[in-house]
UniProtKB/TrEMBL annotation:
Subunit structure: Homotrimer. One TNFSF10 homotrimer interacts with three TNFSF10A mononers. One TNFSF10 homotrimer interacts with three TNFSF10B mononers.
Species assigned in the record: Hymenochirus boettgeri
Record's function text: Cytokine that binds to TNFRSF10A/TRAILR1, TNFRSF10B/TRAILR2, TNFRSF10C/TRAILR3, TNFRSF10D/TRAILR4 and possibly also to TNFRSF11B/OPG. Induces apoptosis. Its activity may be modulated by binding to the decoy receptors TNFRSF10C/TRAILR3, TNFRSF10D/TRAILR4 and TNFRSF11B/OPG that cannot induce apoptosis.
Top-rank taxon: Eukaryota
Claim: Glycoprotein is one of the keywords in the record: no
Biological process according to GO: apoptotic process; immune response; positive regulation of extrinsic apoptotic signaling pathway
Gene3D superfamilies cross-referenced by the UniProt entry: 2.60.120.40
Record's protein name: Tumor necrosis factor ligand superfamily member 10
This protein's UniProt keywords: Apoptosis, Cell membrane, Cytokine, Membrane, Metal-binding, Phosphoprotein, Secreted, Signal-anchor, Transmembrane, Transmembrane helix, Zinc
Membrane topology classification: Single-pass type II membrane protein
Compartments where located: Cell membrane; Secreted
Cellular component GO terms, alphabetical: extracellular space; plasma membrane
Record-linked SMART domains: TNF
């Protein structure tokens, strides 16, 4: 009995040591297992993100069409684009502004709906032909100047616009003195039933109306046209432009040699002016 009692503590101590050893082995194995899993997950995540960037995940051009809110590739690309834009604006904002500074926009191509957004100092107008109101074209030669005055301009619908000027009676009314670039293009159309045996002279003129009793001729452009008898119709356009000094309340208008031949296509027949200085 004395021997059995004396060996009991040794047995408990051995069991305790065995349990501690077993637990240590379990912790070590678990640590190695999860470390390896985390490493594989990290490598998979990196490869996945790299695939998003190089496009291995599909065609990015249709990416937004197939967008799902939980798509990691879309989220990554979206965030990357935002980051790139921020970096570019932060580092190159001044260079971008310097590059576009002084670039004059083609105001003639802007629709009329934007005219209210023009800065107050913009003084310009671009009026176009209006086939719907073609009957507004003058049919008789004016007595105090040569040619037929064009009345049927469209000024309140795109692509026409006006800013700090007025349009009245086929004339652009100047509200501020200065130097203006004035331009006009007219589109002539001759039909087959007209006499084409001889060349026909086409003339475009731009006049200025002041306090002087007779309109003052600013520009004139003339061409002689010859069209084939076998053609259904002949087309020809005349363009001219130049810088002139205009005073407040001056008016400018366009006259042509034969109003019946003018095609009031808004993209081919137009008239305008804008202040240079």
């Amino acid at each position: 009995m004395s021997v059995a009692v004396g060996s009991h503590p040794l047995t408990l101590c051995g069991l305790l040591l065995f349990a501690i050893l077993l637990q240590s082995v379990f912790v070590a194995v678990t640590y190695v297992y999860f470390t390896n899993e985390l490493k594989q997950l990290r490598e998979t995540y990196i490869r996945s993100n790299f695939a998003c960037l190089i496009g291995d995940d599909g065609d990015f051009s249709s990416f937004e069409d197939d967008y799902q809110g939980n798509d990691p590739c879309w989220e990554m690309k979206s965030q990357l684009q935002i980051l790139i834009k921020k970096i570019i604006l932060k580092n190159y904002k001044s260079d971008i502004f310097a590059a576009v500074k002084g670039k004059v926009p083609d105001i003639l191509s802007y629709p009329v709906d934007l005219r209210q957004k023009y800065p107050a100092q913009v003084i310009a107008a671009h009026v176009t032909g209006d086939n719907k109101n073609a009957m507004q074209k003058e049919s008789t030669i004016e007595k105090n100047f040569s040619g037929h005055k064009i009345y049927g301009w469209k000024s309140h619908r795109a692509p026409s616009f006006q800013s700090n000027v007025e349009i009245e009676n086929g004339e652009i009314i100047i509200r501020k003195s200065g130097f203006y670039y004035i331009y006009s293009q007219t589109y002539f159309r001759q039909h087959e039933n007209e006499n084409t045996d001889k060349g026909k002279q086409l003339v475009q003129q731009i006049y200025k109306v002041t306090s002087y009793p007779v309109p003052i001729l600013l520009m004139k452009n003339a061409k002689t046209s010859c069209w084939s008898k076998h053609a259904d119709y002949g087309l020809h356009s005349i363009y001219q432009g130049g810088v002139f000094k205009l005073n407040e309340h001056d008016r400018i208008f366009v006259a042509v040699s034969d109003i019946s031949m003018i095609d009031m296509d808004e993209n081919a027949t137009f008239f305008g002016a804008f202040m240079v200085v």
